[in-house]
Amino acid sequence: xxxxxxxxxxxxxxxxxxxxxxxxxxxxxxxxxxxxxxxxxxxxxxxxxxxxxxxxxxxxxxxxxxxxxxxxxxxxxxxxxxxxxxxxxxxxxxxxxxxxxxxxxxxxxxxxxxxxxxxxxxxxxxxxxxxxxxxxxxxxxxxxxxxxxxxxxxxxxxxxxxxxxxxxxxxxxxxxxxxxxxxxxxxxxxxxxxx
Length: 195
Fold this sequence. Notes:
By secondary structure, this protein is of the alpha+beta class. The protein has helices spanning 11-19, 44-61, 116-130, and strands at 29-32, 35-38, 66-68, 85-88, 105-112, 134-139, 144-153, 159-168, 172-174, 182-184. It contains 3 helices and 10 strands.
């Protein structure tokens, strides 16, 4: 008896499905390890944090880099995540010729409420394997920032980051790619609501 196995897609196959109109314009999907994943719906705290980041990040970065939000990063052969934010190198064509790759990425940021376990257990090793050097999770459950750096692969082939630092919601963090620039976390974490 054979066991059914899910079809895994390459980046090229995924893009071809898009060209063929397989996906709807308002579909919230991403390709993760060859699987087409529907992104979780976002709660009010998540959206508030996103809005606050949209206010702060462009002011801080200016023209030093390109800021993208919920836009693809190509991680061949079979992943194209769409993180909440990514700071990528400026490029003359603004990535018209292709989505940013790991070498173009300074920092990836995810805002996590209902997606926290997914962002820690699935996306973190994916970003580490892809060669993303710095990964931040705005952890809305614990109200702090998890800053990961120094990707590695262990003897069992598991990917992760060897450095994890916690920054509380009232601290100021410097950007690893631009040590002269910093973000006041008090300006981006939403206030904790008491239910």
